[in-house]
């Protein structure tokens, strides 16, 4: 019983500390459907219904169980925190396909091209490059080609 209580308390402490981090920070959509609202309550009108699990969002503000988010197109609104995941994802930005390299080096072999709007999991970002996974494909992509990670940001996942 004491062990179970310790595990529960440890879990609560971890989730509380995640909620205490300074804004802005990055999250992704946990659910396949998430409603963005004009204010921090279900009584506010819906602005946008997201239907894309894993979509990166930037959290700008916290209010109780609600988060003011911004998406890749600059739309801002409120979403329940339970609809968000700490799993880091990013979206390929721009108007042309971006190269995904074998290694985090401009001179390394280009494994494939990622089209704008493609979403993938990011990890091992060194401030210039990130490891980018899209399904069974993976490689290194420049942070400058992504929305969902700040320029110069390091991610250790």
Written description of the protein model:
The structure is a single chain. With 157 residues, the chain is mainly beta. It contains one helix and 16 strands. Strands 6-5-4-1-7 form a five-stranded antiparallel sheet, with no helix packed on it. The longest helix has 18 residues, at 2-19. Mean pLDDT is 90; it is low at 4-14.
Give the helices and strands, then pairings.
Elements: H1 2-19, E1 25-29, E2 34-37, E3 46-50, E4 56-63, E5 66-70, E6 76-80, E7 84-85, E8 89-92, E9 98-101, E10 110-114, E11 119-123, E12 125-126, E13 129-134, E14 137-142, E15 146-147, E16 154-155
The structural class is: mainly beta
Q: Strand count, sense and closure of the main sheet?
A: 5 strands, antiparallel
Share in β-strands: 35-45%
Find the count of extended strands (DSSP E, 2+ residues).
Answer: 16
Please identify the oligomeric state: single chain
- Overall mean pLDDT stands at 90
The percent of residues in helical segments reads 10-25%
Uncertain regions spanning at least 5 consecutive residues: 4-14
Sheet with most strands: strand arrangement: 6-5-4-1-7
* Total number of helices: 1
Q: Tell me the series of helices and strands, N- to C-terminal.
A: HEEEEEEEEEEEEEEEE
Shape call: elongated
N-end to C-end Cα span: 32 Å
> Over all CA atoms, what is the radius of gyration?
17 Å
């Amino acid at each position: 019983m004491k062990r179970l209580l310790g595990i529960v308390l440890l879990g609560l402490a971890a989730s509380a500390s995640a909620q205490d981090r300074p804004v802005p920070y990055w999250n992704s959509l946990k659910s396949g459907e998430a409603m963005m609202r004009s204010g921090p309550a279900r009584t506010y009108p819906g602005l946008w219904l997201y239907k894309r699990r894993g979509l990166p969002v930037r959290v700008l503000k916290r209010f109780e169980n609600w988060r003011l988010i911004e998406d890749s197109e600059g739309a801002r609104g409120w979403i329940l925190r339970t609809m968000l995941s700490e799993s880091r994802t990013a979206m390929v930005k721009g108007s042309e396909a971006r190269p995904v390299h074998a290694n985090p080096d401009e001179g390394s072999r280009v494994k494939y091209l990622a089209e704008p709007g493609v979403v993938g999991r990011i990890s091992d970002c060194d401030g210039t490059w990130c490891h980018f996974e899209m399904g069974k494909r993976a490689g290194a992509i420049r942070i400058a080609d992504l929305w969902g990670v700040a320029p110069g940001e390091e991610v250790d996942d």
